[in-house]
Specification:
Elements: H1 12-18, H2 31-56, H3 82-93, E1 96-101, E2 104-109, H4 112-121, H5 123-126, H6 133-139
Antiparallel strand pairs: 1-2
Length: 148
Amino acid sequence: MTLISIPLHFNSNSYTKIWSWFGNDGRPTHDFARLFFTLVGVFVIFRYVFMCIKSKKAKPRSPPGPRGLPLVGSLPFLEPDLHSYFAKLARTYGPVLKLQLGNKTGIVVSSPSTVREVLKDQDITFANRDAPVVGLLATGGHDIVWSP
């Protein structure tokens, strides 16, 4: 019996064409993953720089007020006697103060001259306010308090 041997010749070009997704050392290259994570990294860096630049632009300052907790704001610290609580806050922070109530920001005006300016002189500016969801559900949005 005769053994027939057929020599198989592969040059290096045909081998690399067949296994083109493998690197030179036989391990797979992760070109797509490398490209993906590079693009994600560049996007994150640009987004961070953009947000830093945007936050440094002049924003209108809000009035002073007590710092609240992250989700509930100053709601746990409200006292049952609200008018005396607001008077105490006005002695600390001044006649106009900011109060964080949950995810809503409330502005408390306590001096009569400032109240007159807000309600009479600058009424169009300060009339833009959100109607609470409960008020919209109860009255269908036709309440005199929330009308423009």
